[in-house]
Every structure is written in structure tokens, then in C-alpha cells.
Amino acid sequence: MEMKDVIYVLGIMLTFALGIWNLVSNFRASRRTSFINTVTAQRVKWIEQLRQDISAFSGYTHTWCYSELEGKTEEAELLKEIDRLRHVIRLRLNPSATHDREIEQLIQRIPQLTHVTKREELKGALEQLIVATHKLLKEEWEKVKEESEHGNLRTK
Question: Domain range spanning residue 121?
Fold first, then answer.
């Protein structure tokens, strides 16, 4: 075998090895990108759903407490929806995160403040719920932006 044949064989082997390495690298990058896109999309859905649930819970609770629905058929439906939202919201939260725990505590406390004599406390608790939710949603949105920009799912 001549020297030029050896160089050709080495060149072919090197090209083949680089092709395999490129294939594996692209496969890994594609899987990682797909995973990050899926997680980010689900996080965006979660943010929107939590926003909708908290706003509905707050609105229905306020409406129920300040309306003349007592004893009417609409009251039972409204209370049923408020109760459903309380549980759904709690299930969407992370029990070990600070803002989530604050929201969960408020969700548990608010039904105790629905009596006519506690309306001012109810207003304050609903406002606290909105503020805590703002903080949580902002924090989660920053995570979404970080994930989208840098592809990093780890929290700081």
C-alpha cells in the first residue's frame, strides 16, 4: 500500500468518525431542545390556567359575599364552583415554594372570612392573594424566559 492510499483511508475513516460524532451530537441537541420546548410550553399553560383559576376564585368569592344570592339556586352553583376552584388551585401549587405556600394559606383562610362582619378582612385577604399570585406568576415567567433563552431547566 502506498502512502497516498494510507492517507485516503485515514481521511475516509476521519470523515466517517466526524459524521458519526455529528449525528450523535445533533440527536442529543434535538432531544434536549424538544424536552425544553415541551416543559416551557407546559409551564406557560400552567401560568395561564393558574391566573384564570385565581381570578375566578377571587371574583366568585367577592360576588358571592356582596350579592343577594343567599337561599337562591344560583348560590349553590356559585359555592360549588368556588369550592372546586379552591381545590384545583391548591393542587396546582408547589407545597415547598414560598409564594405557593402563601397562596395556599390564603386559599384556606378566605372561606373563613365570608361572614358579613369580616368583609374588610376578606377584601384584604383577596388583595393579598392577588399580590402573592403576581409574585408567583412573575417568578415563573422569568423561569420561562430563562429556559427559552438559555435552555436551562435548573433553578438557581
Answer: 40-150
